[in-house]
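User: I'm preparing a small set of examples for a lab meeting where we compare how different chains pack in three dimensions. I only have the primary sequence for this one, and I'd like the structure in token form so I can line it up with the others. Please keep the answer compact; I'll paste it straight into my notes.
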Amino acid sequence: QVRIVESGGGLVQSGGSLRLSCASSGIIFSVYTMGWYRQAPGKQRELLAGLTSGGSTNYARSVKGRFTISRDNGKNMVYLQMNNLKPEDTAVYYCNAVRQVGRDTYDYWGQGTQVTVSS
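Assistant: Understood. Below is the structure token output for the 119-residue chain.
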């Protein structure tokens, strides 16, 4: 059974920092591309940061320079370090694991963790 579990959300003041963690089990973690997404009320879910099995990263323009994604394959963990947080970063943050094998896509999501940034 695959489990993706986020933690580390909470309430923080504008300009503050948070570190989100995502624990994965039931998958061969090291071969998956891991990503962090968020969804604010009334908005679509958006990709914030991705990290491939080979170590390549990509970031949304809105968070580049402020957020950093990293992974620990030995612990099956992925992290999102968020600095200089802004009120517009308030959202539910989701961890995603995805792998493409031929025509098959293996795509798993966590339940989300709330991040609230006060002004």
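A couple of notes for your slides: The radius of gyration is 14 Å. The first strand starts at residue 3 and ends at 7.

User: Perfect, thanks.
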